[in-house]
Design a protein that fits this description.
Elements: H1 5-23, H2 32-61, E1 64-65, E2 76-77, H3 79-96
Antiparallel strand pairs: 1-2
Helix pairs in contact: 2-3
Length: about 100
């Protein structure tokens, strides 16, 4: 992902502002927790999805077939690995369907 210097500076300014607000005790204000709930839910969803991607990547790496069509032709995955990925996704969705509601 490419990000402009201007946007980096904007984000650094936002971070500085948040740190100053929290240092002044804004996180103790009435309603702060309620205001932060959507952010916390989004962060939790993001983290769970990242964990799922890591799990899938790890599983795929354990089932790489380096000789799909011969040397220097790329890589494929053994079918057992793909079946395992399907199982991982189904289990994950069963455990996490509420994060998308």
């Amino acid at each position: 992902m490419l990000i402009s210097n201007k946007r980096v500076q904007e984000l650094l300014d936002i971070e500085k502002k948040m740190r100053l607000l929290e240092a002044a005790g804004v996180d103790n204000w009435e309603g702060y927790d309620i205001a932060m709930e959507p952010y916390e839910k989004e962060l939790e969803t993001h983290n769970k999805i990242n964990d799922l991607v890591d799990l899938i990547t790890d599983e795929l790496c354990m089932h790489i077939d380096t000789n799909v069509a011969g040397p220097n032709t790329g890589h494929g995955f053994y079918s057992e690995g793909l079946d395992e990925i399907k199982s991982i996704i189904v289990e994950w969705l069963e455990e996490n369907t509420t994060i998308f509601q």
